Amino acid sequence: MTRRTKATGASGVGHKNVVSAVATAIYDRFSSSGQLKPVPENIRLDGKTCLVTGANSGLGRAVATQLAARGGNMILVCRPGHEEVVEEIQLATGNPDVRLMTADLADMASVASLCDRLRDQNVRLDIAVLNAGLMPLQARKSPQGYELMFAVHFLANRLLAERWWQDGVIQPATDPARTPRLVFVSSEAHQSSPPIDFDRFGAFTPYGLKDGMKFYGQTKLHLCTLASELSRRLNSSGRVQVAVHALCPGPIASNIARESPVYIKPILKPIMKTLFRSPEQAAEPVIYLACADEMGQRSGVYLHMMKEKLPSARALDPLNGEQLWVKSEALIAPYIREVATA
Questions:
Q1: pTM
Q2: DSSP assignment, residue 194?
Q3: Which pLDDT tens digit goes with each residue over 78-108?
Q4: DSSP strand E in the chain: where?
Q5: Does 263 qualify as catalytic in the annotation?
Q6: CB atoms within 10 A of CB 325
Q7: Residues 287/249, Cβ–Cβ less than 8 Å
Q8: pLDDT band, residue 275 (cuts 50/70/90)
Q9: What is the distance between the alpha carbons of residues 154 and 31, in angstroms, rounded to a whole number?
């Protein structure tokens, strides 16, 4: 495979605020050089178990539907109240092997409960797409007191990865054709983020509309740094045992801006509908990382839409990765100790 990488850095004008983020999204939407080819429809996932978080709407639902259409045995992770999505995806794809597991990814106790159920049901994941995301209008606390995006975008995924490896839900590959894959849905906004403040790691900081994009990008930097560190740790022998990838799907006409102020929605909605891609189109890079044969033989790939590039230098820095791992280990420790005690 020819690797289409380029120097790291944000495209367009960056993601310092909502206006610059929208301008950059439109720039990205119509930049077509260096595109990878979509995965052919005849590539199947029969017999493989796939899990998608945030699968009830938007990008997560589109990804889950496309994986189901390829024959994957689907586990949809959603908050309670979305039971209808199972039957809808079954009817849309003709695949009966679709089931729901409820969890609130903002609540670490709920994430730990999800891990318990997967372990107790002897689930072995081949593909996990960690997609769930949000952008609140202002800072809110999770049940454990963390900022909501920090909890959902980063800490929940950190706990899931730790528990799955510990519980054997994800196991090292013995057959290169069955290399398990972890795919993190991130954002190019991480490229514009300031460094992670490890002195106040996990501390709640209030913010409003003006600073929302800054904190969104910060949590996506946490996520990209986690993906890089996981790839190093799970494949330290030099052989790909677990393929860990990340991506930015580009501008999507989804409901992530559902908490936008009333006065902005009349402006934002037409822009998103006209200039942003549909969730089905935006799912292309996720499907590529989850299904393309070559992506099971590599690890640490980052895609911006359908272009391979480098994540930020901060996300790639092993020292940042080590600090992130150690600092977050203390935050998820109660949910690891509970398992050991049980």
A1: 0.88
A2: P
A3: 999 999 999 999 999 999 999 999 999 999 9
A4: 49-53, 73-78, 98-102, 127-130, 181-185, 243-248, 302-304, 307-309
A5: no
A6: 17
A7: no
A8: confident
A9: 29
